[in-house]
Amino acid sequence: MIELFDVVVVGGGFAGCSAALSLSRSSMTVKVVDAGYQRNRLSSRVYSYLGIDGKHTPATISDFKDELELYGVSIMKDSINSAIFQEDLFCLMTASGILIKCRYLILATGVQDLLPALPGIQALWGRSIFNCLYCGAYEYRGSRIAVYGAGQSGYEDAIKAASWSKDVIFYNATESAITIQQLTRLELAGVVIEDSKISHLIAASQGGFTVCSLSGKDHHVDVMFLRSRIVPRLSLASDLGCELDSAGYIQLDRFGRTLCPGLYVCGDATGQLFQAVGAAADGNKVARQLHHDSLFLVR
């Protein structure tokens, strides 16, 4: 079985669905192939997005897909195992063995979070441990907030966390000492500094969790924010001849165009880590550019 579309969007999160909506409204035939690996799939709610602020994340994405189907967008729950470009078409083979062909391809495949080696973190990730202060700190204002971080970014996150609570603990994730200037600023913000390394995390039945340190000094916290290591999901771009840099990203222009004609990238996979509203905006921007290119650029 072979299916042919103007555009295939790989990834059905905020960026991918937004791109598909704009393209379908531009009278292009669109298929979304989504394996359900959205970065925010473990987060319970969407925040800082007018109109859907506080809405359940899985329900929001489900509603997006229902809206897309009203525009004739074909949606498939599957993953793409391989991609080649031949005879002016992208040829995509799904994990279920279906061959899909398209004139243009958008990768909205997002990124994968590689979490620090803290025993107990997996059960708490997306529930009591998050990566974005601006996405979720408001819901914990006045609560005990832990920040686990390293270097300048960790220090800055600890200072920022004090905007939402006066009860902030900063866990220094590296062996490097905090500078005198940083220490002074943290103390002025009322941030407690915990230099002892974390041994493990224990979830609490009534919410929050306990951070256990090697020193034996434990703290019950309501939430923790940390910056995980990010790996983009761009293996399909590599299959199509795009060169990945040392961080796993590919060269793009400001419209999401790659060096491979007809191949575009939007959302977190671009290297810009968006909140949901920003990812949706990026998907819309890339889709509009793709439609323009389909009319005025000769490949």
UniProtKB/TrEMBL annotation:
It comes from Pseudomonas kitaguniensis. InterPro entries: FAD/NAD-bd_sf (IPR036188), FAD/NAD-binding_dom (IPR023753), Ferredoxin-NADP_redctase_2 (IPR050097). This is NAD(P)/FAD-dependent oxidoreductase. SUPFAM superfamilies: FAD/NAD(P)-binding domain. PANTHER family: THIOREDOXIN REDUCTASE 1-RELATED-RELATED. GO terms for molecular function: oxidoreductase activity. It holds the Pfam family Pyr_redox_2. Keywords: Flavoprotein, Oxidoreductase. Residues 5-283 form the FAD/NAD(P)-binding domain. It comes from the Bacteria.
